[in-house]
Amino acid sequence: MMALNIKQGSTSHSAYDLRDPNAQIEERHTLAVLVENEPGVLARVIGLFSGRGYNIDSLTVAETDHEGHRSRITIVTRGTPSVIVQIKAQLGRIVPVHEVHDLTTEGPSVERELGLFKVSGTGDHRVEALRIAEIFRANVVDSTLKSFVFEITGTPEKLDAFAELMRPLGLSDQARTGVAALARGA
């Protein structure tokens, strides 16, 4: 019989930990991409991600310059530092792309997301849902005798926390816009 002696606080690795100790850690990045507002541009951007196996955590797009026919695509993705560099370089090579900004590394930025949450319930659950909504500064945008629809704006983490607290109170549906972000300052 063989005994394995492991000291508490030891830095030795388990025989079952198959992770590469030299591997880079994935990071969350928010990218702002200014593009021509023309058919197929969004499909090309999305194709770049899916074709290379990159995941998109959040995606928002809207025309921001009506006269110049430009749109802003905000993408939240995860990857190792080298993968993020590849993503930015490949986005920059797509012809209708004018600018690519990594808001995560270029300095302070503001991120917000809008969420609508439907909570169904009666009695104490209904009272508790209203109390939590007040704490989170969520607005009631629809109310029936058996449900509320709350509107809340904030960081993705704030919306996640709100959803987690509403789940046991009858959270039955939710819709989220995805992240909108801008660099802070001049």
TrEMBL record:
Alphabetical GO biological process terms: isoleucine biosynthetic process; L-valine biosynthetic process
Gene3D superfamilies listed in its UniProt record: 3.30.70.260, ACT-like. Chain A, domain 2 (3.30.70.1150)
Catalysed reaction equations from the record: 2 pyruvate + H(+) = (2S)-2-acetolactate + CO2
Domain ACT: start-end pairs: 30-105
Top-rank taxon: Bacteria
Entry GO MF terms: acetolactate synthase activity; acetolactate synthase regulator activity
EC number: 2.2.1.6
An example Gene Ontology CC term for this record: cytosol
Keywords: Amino-acid biosynthesis, Branched-chain amino acid biosynthesis, Transferase
UniProt KW Amino-acid biosynthesis keyword: yes
Pathway(s) per entry: Amino-acid biosynthesis; L-valine biosynthesis; L-valine from pyruvate: step 1/4; Amino-acid biosynthesis; L-isoleucine biosynthesis; L-isoleucine from 2-oxobutanoate: step 1/4
Top enzyme category: transferase
Family, per entry: Belongs to the acetolactate synthase small subunit family.
Function: Catalyzes the conversion of 2 pyruvate molecules into acetolactate in the first common step of the biosynthetic pathway of the branched-amino acids such as leucine, isoleucine, and valine.
Assembly information from the UniProt record: Dimer of large and small chains.
Protein known as: Acetolactate synthase small subunit
Gene label: ilvN
